[in-house]
Amino acid sequence: MSLCAWSNAIVKLMNNATIDPTPTDWNGAVMQKRIAKRYAAERRFKAMGFIAVALSTLFLAFLLFTMLGQGLRGFQRTEVAVEFDFPALTSGATAASITGPNADTTLNSMDIPGIVELAVSQQYGDQGSELLTSAAAANVRQMLADNPQLVTAKQTLWLPAESRLDVAYKRKGEPASEKTVAALEQKDALRSGFNWTFLTGADATDPSAVGIWAAFKGSLMTMAITLLLAFPVGVFAALYLEEYAPKNKLTDMIEVSINNLAAVPSIIFGLLGLAVFLTMFGMPRSSALVGGLTLALMTMPVIVIAGRNAVKSVPPSIREAALGIGASPVQVVFHHVLPLALPGILTGTIIGMARALGETAPLLMIGMRAFIPSPPQGFTDAATALPVQIYLWSDEVNQGFVEKTSAAIIVLLIFLLGMNALAIYLRNRFETRW
Amino acid sequence: MTGTALLFLVLGLGLVAWIVGRARAATFVRAAKGGPRGQVNSLPSYHGWFVAVCAVVPAVLFMFIWQSISPALVTNMVLSAPAASDLPQDGFSRAAILSEARAIAQGLQTTAFQAQSEKLAPLYKDALSYYSWIGMAGTLVLLFAGGAFAFTRLKPDFRARNKVERLVMVGLLFASLIAIITTLGIFASLIFESYQFFSMVSPFEFLFGTDWNPKSVVTAGADNGYGAIPLFWGTIFIGAIIAMLVAIPLGLMSAIFLTQYASSNVRKWMKPILEILAGVPTVVYGYFAALTVAPTVRDFAVMLGVSNAASDNALAAGIVMGVMIIPLVSSMSDDSIAAVPNAMRDGSLAMGATKSETIKQVLLPAALPGVVGGVLLAVSRAIGETMIVVMAAGYTANLTANPFDTITTVTVQIVALLTGDQDFGSPHTLAAFALGLALFVTTFFLNYVALRVVKRYREAYE
Amino acid sequence: MAETTANPKISTRNVNVYYGEKKAIDNVSIDVDMDNVTAFIGPSGCGKSTFLRSLNRMNDTIVGARVEGNILLDGQDIYASSMDVVQLRARVGMVFQKPNPFPKSIYDNVAYGPRIHGLAAGKAELDQIVESALTRAGLWGEVKDRLGDSGTALSGGQQQRLCIARAIAVDPEVILMDEPCSALDPIATARIEELIHDLRGKYAIIIVTHNMQQAARVSQRTAFFHLGNLIEFGETSEIFTNPREDRTKDYITGRYG
């Protein structure tokens, strides 16, 4: 403490409460220095706030770029040129024989995997068939079914490469695969193509043959059940609690339950699904039905809470006006309050559904982690969901799965961000200020 | 006929009932116009709804009840047949044969792996069709009976609207009760399974034991490796310590920056970005943590000279979980700070306080209860979070405070215990429920306190 | 029609205040000195509070607010870049319409300003400042035994005097009071008015009020605002007994307001 401040202090001490103190010397060096210090603290504090926001943003950007960087490759596949001398290989199948109603039977009888293996080994030697993914034969079959004319002549078909080769072509792979890639590139026998299989296929053991459609369909079916159950129940509960519920113990219990359910860890819902739906009711394991039921219980409180806020924001004057012309309480709610609250309810529902779509843990509990090699056909079939598929692939050791995992994440994020954007749009578009 | 088709038939007949009821009421209206008795009490469509509801609701209820009890009746019928007498007594192979026979009978499977299932399949087929016919007949009888009963009640002065509205109210109340039923369902199933678990393993070992290495066959009185202390510690270490060390400063400072310093333009863009952070699914965070953050943290630890740094270290999982929680802390802090009356801020600024002095000495102390409530909610979110720790943290129970070491949590172990061949009733499965109970009670308590604190705080400034 | 004083503490020249596009104050020039209490009166929405808030730059906290013209404190332009807003507000204290004690103890409320500005060298001196400020605000006798209680636990009138004590504690030169009694009962109002009497001469005091009797009771000079314009400014006795402008007369006699 400097002399100046001390003398100031002593003067002040000598004054008693009723005598004026000396005026503060705002322009003195001590005070100026102190103020400069306070401003420095102010700038530091503001910078800390900025850094906090920047760090959060950077983390998000880093996450998205990592996923994009790895995932975009997942939408590509490496293709190997394979020459098929179809007339020789198929011992003279005609275009007519693989068109029309009998096409399937003929194609089945053609032993296409054998044909592919023969064609590759003729061109690339005995190890040739190891160049192609396990789904290559199915690809050839599809090509023939789409264009029967192919079978009448010698063709060069581009077939998806096997996973290690795929990795080596896109970036650094194992030395052996790198060597193969170099050899094939010299022959101009490698190229990149869009990986349609990834969008239309199902899980497989070979990363170059996997697709997300089965998991995505499972997600869609699960979401359909969730929406069908959670939306009406959530809206009805919200209407009851806001409009009709008397103030009593039961209502309090309902409120506590809903607030608590909204914050219960999702894995607990999985345990409930396992204990009640699977074990007690004996519903089919791994099915979209049970997944949807479980997620519906989790989503319902979110819809109730959003719905209550939306219903609450409808001004009482509208209710009074309707009651005043002789509408019954039920008519007031269903004719006036509900339509006005609907945009808010929908926003909450979309956000709740987005959360359910990204949810993984409860689905693991009820067995939706099974290996699903073909899309589920019904609500009781064994199914998996997109986030669970991501989790399963992330556990795979094979390098080829890294980009597939990221690519699946991109698809999932596109849907989630789309749903959230829709919710924000709805909120801004229909938000009415009364 | 499948259940779905029957349901559609019932709904279709319900539509018919609605049309019939409405048409009947329309004749009243026409009659009333000429007659002396004045108006019909309710609109025709309410009469229609009354008939339709009376027809459909009991029928559908019966359908669902029948769906849930008929499998047991079918099995009973098959078992009571003489052909079933030579089934093995052993429960497991017996169940396997029965389920295979059922699958064949339903056409889900074409060939049998067990000879006995082949033999039982026709029996199953008969039993299934027998009970499904009963179910269908019962449903339709109820539907027509309900519809007919309602139709006879229709009269010009019948108060159809009041009846329908009362039914609507019952429906609304029932929808609200589902929340209570779910909560009770969670509680009951957790308690029930945990009770079974604690009859095998002593609660004392579970709550105070430090050795987590669960054995699948337990012996009373011995150490069975069900000491959950390392799991509780791991959960607290990752969720309540590391994650909060990331989330509280970043979330709070973000909220302060966005509400107090940022221009409205910056705020308009930055708030949705923080919301996106909250919308990213946890499985994505988990993958990112395992793939990118964990190796970086390990390399960093090795650089620092920590030799035993694990690739599934606690720090990576905790950091990523903290980032996931940032939006929650930020929005709760935002709300709390916004709830402090502006007069408070003006009072401080008018004294010549700088913005940061005002925030640190007036706004934050005033908003503290709300912020604390938000942090409690965040802790509850973090300790219940599953996927990040499943993917990035370890599976080995480890009682350590070294953030570079591998540590497991309650949720990781629940997933681990329920993975693989599970026989419901094995100590492994039941232990998962005991862990679930511990998690549920803890989060319930945290949420309850947090909501109370926040509510009390809101009321203080209203 | 600038009313000038020989030795003004604050003088404003051709001040305009805008909220976004809207002009809230139009060309106001006024002088305020240490010896007199100045009252701003006028119907609600006339801009008197807006003008008051521009005297210690509290309008800076409102997005879109903009001040034109010169406002001088001891001859220094307070909107000049060399003027530090933190110092300015310490020199020009403010008391608000609704009492707004911080949710802290009574002691900490009063000590807040001296602490942030570093006016006390130690605990003893801070105690001294707090006691002196509370004494001047006429609150010391009522609270000296419970300085640790929360400031929000006091009654409305006591809270407002606490806010005055809080403003006094940083040793300001000017005190702005924005309708300080509008949330108080008549007895509490009387105490505050007495207090204003006592403080006169030690600080330049400006009080905004919509209560004409109050203006007549506490002030020596009065400015009448209407729709953002300064209509009349002069000795309080003059304004109330013999207004020069018809609009002033109409307002004072209760034609509108």
Automatic annotation (TrEMBL), chain B:
Main localization, broad class = membrane
Q: Pfam families in the record, alphabetically?
A: BPD_transp_1 (PF00528), DUF3708 (PF12501)
Protein's gene:
pstC
Q: Which GO terms describe its molecular function?
A: phosphate transmembrane transporter activity
Span of domain ABC transmembrane type-1:
233-450
In Swiss-Prot or TrEMBL terms, this protein is called Phosphate transport system permease protein
Reply yes or no: does the keyword Cell inner membrane apply: yes
The organism's superkingdom is given as: Bacteria
* GO biological process terms, semicolon-separated: phosphate ion transport
Task: Write out the annotated subcellular location.
Answer: Cell inner membrane; Cell membrane
